[in-house]
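Team,

Forwarding the record for the chain on the shared tracking sheet. I've put the sequence and predicted structure together so nobody has to dig through attachments.
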Amino acid sequence: MGWDSGWTALTRRLLRRGQFASRDELAAAVDTFVLACDEHDAGPYRWAYGGSPLETA
């Protein structure tokens, strides 16, 4: 999951539905969410650059 999709998932799954009594409770929920995503959703990064110089338009 890239940063953009990671922030989108965090917003959709946690922040929009969550009600947090304190900043510490929010931080704990974000930490739990990130650790769960790392454990279940993360995969190896596939590098797409082949090593040749990029062409300019």
